[in-house]
Structure formats: C-alpha cells, structure tokens
Design goal:
77% of the residues lie in helices and 0% in strands. The radius of gyration is 15 Å and the shape is elongated.
Length: 133
C-alpha cells in the first residue's frame, strides 16, 4: 500500500489493523468527507464494511475505489468476495478474473475465480483455475 495521503489515514489504519473496526470507521469517513476519491480510504473502508457484514455498503465503496484505481488486485479480490456475499456471482467472477489478471501469481484470486466458476459453470470449468493455485 502507498503511504497514507491524508493525516487521519494512519490512525484509521492502525485501529483497523488492531481489529478496532468501530474506531476506524469514523476516521475513514472523515477522510472521505474531505477527499471523496481517496483510494486508500475507499478501499479500506469498503473492506471494513465487509468485515462488519455490511456487504452492500462494502461493495459500493470498493466499486468507487476500483473506479479510482482499477489496477489494485487486492481491491478487485475484495470486491469479488463482497459481490459473492450478495449473490451477484457473475459480477463476482468478473472481479475475481480481474484480480487474477492483475496478480497472476496470486493464489487467492485464482481460488476465488475457480470457486465462482464452479458455482456458475460446474466443477470441470473450474479445474484450470484451481490448478493455478
């Protein structure tokens, strides 16, 4: 991750990494109020929302983050997980494929892509993705 670009971001990230999600969320919100296109705040607050089971909010934030930086593999993978949790499997597979393309060595993205492909097209179609893991 790039160095934080807003003075509150390091504090929010420290709370988030320590598992203090309730303390991190309002700090991310303050960053976004001041800088609505701050990729790190969008991405991390979207991830935090998924961790809090606020999946629709998380997906919306991660989609905004992806619009700011479409080349961030972890954001694409987290978006795939969020979309999957909402039952939006085709969109989730597209996001997972994007994550796998951005990070070809990333086993998590290929596993997610295999899992989603299996659910949509059957196990035989998923095998090549699982072999990449």
């Amino acid at each position: 991750m790039r160095p934080p670009s807003h003075p509150l971001l390091p504090q929010a990230l420290a709370h988030h990494q320590a598992g203090r999600l309730a303390a991190a969320a309002p700090l991310y919100a303050r960053v976004l109020a001041a800088a609505p296109k701050n990729f790190d705040a969008l991405h991390l607050s979207g991830f935090l929302a998924l961790q809090q089971q606020r999946n629709a909010d998380g997906v919306a934030l991660l989609q905004r983050a992806r619009a700011v930086n479409p080349r961030h593999a972890q954001c694409a993978l987290r978006l795939a997980h969020g979309l999957k949790s909402l039952g939006r499997l085709a969109e989730a597979r597209t996001a997972a494929a994007h994550a796998a393309a951005l990070d070809p060595a990333g086993g998590d993205a290929h596993f997610c892509l295999g899992e989603l492909t299996g659910k949509i097209d059957g196990f035989a179609a998923a095998v090549p993705h699982f072999r990449r893991v």
